[in-house]
Amino acid sequence: MGVVVVRDWNEVNRIIQNSFKEKEDPRILIVTDMLITGFDCPKLKVMYLDKSLYEHRLLQTVARVNRPYKAENLTKEFGLIVDFVGLLDYVKETIVKYELLDIDAYKEIFEESISTLKDTIGEIELLINEIKKKLTMGINVGIHKVELDIDSIIELINEEKESQAYEKLRNAASLLTMGYRSYNPNIIDLLIKMKRVCNLYRALGAFKDKLKFHNYIVVITKLYNGILYYMKNAKQPESFLERIVENDS
User: Cα 176 to chain center, whole Å?
Assistant: First the structure.
């Protein structure tokens, strides 16, 4: 295998940028005054700001993470900016100064669309509680009822009884899939909440406060992925589903 030596730093930068946009590695770029303008990378999801920026340069920098993105192994619905400087107020001032938005658009962005880390943590906690409550109370699927205690699943995993825990999750996923195919509104709402909370958790990146939800997210993710798996495969016969319920009781 030959080694290519590149002495032109502009070419080196171009290679690194293209690799970041098109390949799995590198996954992190550390820059100073670069990539603020003319750098289009829709999959860029998290940006850490540790430098004071103002006016149009600040707006251009923030806009680096505002592109939706969907690929085979990655779906990006929103971006995350971790601000170590405190620049949000400057963004607002710049918007007002340049009259870039009308009042309705301004309210939609800064009062409805932008969330702080505290807001996001609060939403994750609320969604987890709603998911737990819905599953604990049970969801009717035809003549069956899906009841799942997430806390007990976590206990089984902690006690190294993963096989029991995963069997319960598989059973629940199979029945919930059957209900989803029947357009059960409770199950549709459950799936929306599960997808939302998993995406929010991932969006927080390395933010350590999210770790208190780790065990819940693991269980919710496995259940959600189980439902997706059954959705992609042929519908199970009714007799199979009845055996699942009998074995789970």
Answer: 21
How many other CB atoms sit within 10 Å of the CB of residue 223?
Answer: 24
**Inter-residue contact 180 to 227 (CB < 8 Å):** yes
- 42: helix, strand or coil: coil
Torsion angle in degrees (nearest 10) through CA of 211, 214, 216, 221: 140
What are the pLDDT tens digits along the chain (249 aa)? 455 566 777 888 888 888 888 888 888 888 887 887 778 888 888 888 888 777 777 777 777 887 777 776 667 777 777 777 777 777 767 766 656 555 665 555 555 555 677 788 999 999 999 999 999 999 999 888 999 999 999 999 999 999 999 999 999 999 999 888 888 999 999 999 999 999 888 878 777 889 999 999 999 999 999 998 888 874 544 444 444 334 433
Listed in order, strand segments (DSSP E) in the chain are: 46-49, 69-71, 74-76, 80-83, 139-141, 144-146
Which candidate, 27, 6, 24, places its Cα nearest to that of 15? 6
Q: What is the pTM of this model?
A: 0.61
Q: Are 227 and 177 in contact (CB under 8 A)?
A: yes
List domains and CATH numbers for the chain: 9-114 (3.40.50.300), 118-248 (no CATH)
How many C-beta atoms lie closer than 10 Å to residue 58's C-beta? 19
What is the number of residues in the chain? Answer: 249
Please report, in angstroms and rounded to a whole number, the separation of the first and last CA atoms in the chain.
Answer: 60
Token pair of 218 as six digits: 């693991």
Quote the CA–CA distance of 100 and 109 in Å, as a whole number.
12
